[in-house]
Amino acid sequence: MTERETRDAPPHRVGLWHVGVVVSTNTETPTGRSIVLDVPGWGGNLAGQHADVRLTAPDGYQAVRSYSIASAGDGDRVELAVDRFPTGEVSPYLVDELQPGDELELRGPLGGWFVWRPSQTESVQLIGGGSGIVPLMAMIRSHTASGSTAPFRLLYSVRTPDDAFFRSELDTPNPHLDVTWLYTRRTPDGWPRPASRIALADIEASAFAASLAPAVFVCGPTGFVETVANDLVALGHDPQRVKTERFGGA
Length: 250
Ligand SMILES: Cc1cc2nc3c(=O)[nH]c(=O)nc-3n(C[C@H](O)[C@H](O)[C@H](O)COP(=O)(O)OP(=O)(O)OC[C@H]3O[C@@H](n4cnc5c(N)ncnc54)[C@H](O)[C@@H]3O)c2cc1C
Prior knowledge:
The chain is an alpha/beta fold. It has helices at 3-8, 91-97, 133-146, 167-171, 200-206, 222-234; strands at 17-29, 32-38, 50-56, 62-68, 77-83, 103-110, 124-129, 152-158, 177-183, 215-220, 242-246.
């Protein structure tokens, strides 16, 4: 890490469990919602980092899962966005039961690899699948808040138009962000591209070319990330510049 990067990083106490209080929740999709928390002592995070979330049952049983942070910058406010695994242990609670005023334990921020810093000036290609948009959203917000003029593009793949996290924010015109939507199961009416999984041709048509040497961040389910990473390398992107984050699942 360079001296400059160290100064960019907000102060934080990574190893401690903090008790956050839910400030608000927002239904994002039929299966997912965003959750805003006040976490005293958090101290901020870089765009792209994640937190560990710990739930404790009345009998003392604990479950810990990782969640990317949709917010970035200084302060004690943390936004998460969670998609429900119907048979999962933790995500159904976070999506269906957690209410404003409830407490949630968080540890972090974690991760120093899958991050974007406003000091970076190269073009940035973001490629997200489903809830994989969450750390990319933090990068988009950080980019906008910092006034960075680094060209940003997002390729966002979702099942149907209803399954997009942060839809209204992403649909708000932003001269520094170019968004391409991909649908895998159902498209909006009249959409020119038939519903199908992301393919090399989609990346070739909409993403920054390898010749521009963009920084590339790919996040989503494991299969999505592997497909996209392989396609990017086939299109000539330097694997060193392709950073990936996997959420598990198919
Ligand atoms: C660094 C990182 C960041 C992450 N960020 C986010 C985030 O921002 N938002 C988010 O929603 N998740 C995120 N995840 C995933 C998250 O950590 C959990 O894995 C997820 O919420 C499921 O947890 P769970 O306890 O509900 O399910 P678990 O009880 O842990 O079971 C989930 C596992 O069981 C299997 N499984 C269960 N149900 C299904 C199903 N319906 N379909 C397919 N497989 C199934 C899968 O193998 C899956 O991995 C992140 C993961 C990592 C590693």
